């Protein structure tokens, strides 16, 4: 995910169960929703229409989530996420004066930079990450643009969306691409 997408997530955007109430994707997923008014100024690039009805988010850019991401989410929400935070956002500041406030993209970028230096990867900038994931997903997708897009959120292939719709989610190549994007296969 892009940093703006990640920091812009609200708890209601996460549909981490099979057959979530939105009815738009049977597997665990999340909805990337463009919200210009986020208190941490995180803003998703994708402006696909979305809405909330009876507390259920539909639309936006739907991205599937891996079992590891679901696991990390539950660990984070049960241990570190502040209960009853009025802003309803997923990622919050865990230290300092702004503890409990939504985590700003600038903080996420700084942390990523520090992690990159510690791992001796040189200068790591957020756009590298989606690119890396997309390339890996694209390889695993066997050159299938649709699979690459749905597995890795490869938005440059968005134009194929209107022409071909979505991949067959039972396609084994799609599952292989997902596992690669999620780092479950090498
Ligand atoms: Zn959903």
Describe the structure.
The radius of gyration is 17 Å and the shape is globular. About 6% of the residues have low confidence. The chain is α+β, with helices and mostly antiparallel strands and 186 residues long. Strands 1-2-5 form a three-stranded antiparallel sheet. A two-stranded antiparallel sheet has the order 3-4. It has seven helices and five strands, in the order αβββββαααααα. The chain has two domains: 77 residues, no CATH class; 55 residues. Zinc ion binds next to β2.
Describe the structure in brief:
The protein is α+β, with helices and mostly antiparallel strands. Helices cover 38% and strands 10% of the residues. The protein starts with a helix and ends in a 5-residue tail after the last helix.
Please supply descriptive tags for the structure shown above.
186 residues; alpha+beta; 2 domains; two-stranded antiparallel sheet; 7 helices; 5 strands; globular; binds zinc ion
């Amino acid at each position: 995910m892009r940093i703006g997408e990640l920091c812009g997530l609200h708890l209601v955007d996460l549909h981490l169960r099979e057959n979530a109430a939105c009815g738009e994707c049977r597997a665990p997923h999340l909805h990337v929703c463009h919200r210009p008014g986020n208190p941490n100024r995180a803003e998703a690039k994708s402006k696909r229409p979305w809405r909330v009805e009876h507390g259920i988010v539909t639309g936006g850019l739907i991205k599937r989530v891996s079992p590891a991401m679901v696991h990390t989410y539950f660990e984070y929400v049960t241990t570190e996420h502040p209960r009853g935070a009025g802003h309803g956002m997923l990622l919050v500041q865990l230290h300092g004066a702004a503890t409990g406030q939504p985590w700003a993209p600038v903080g996420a970028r700084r942390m990523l930079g520090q992690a990159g230096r510690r791992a001796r990867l040189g200068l790591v900038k957020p756009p590298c990450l989606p690119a890396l994931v997309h390339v890996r997903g694209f390889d695993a997708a066997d050159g299938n643009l649709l699979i690459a897009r749905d597995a890795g959120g490869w938005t440059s292939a968005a134009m194929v969306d209107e022409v071909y719709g979505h991949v067959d989610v039972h396609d084994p190549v799609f599952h292989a691409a997902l596992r690669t994007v999620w780092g479950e296969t090498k």
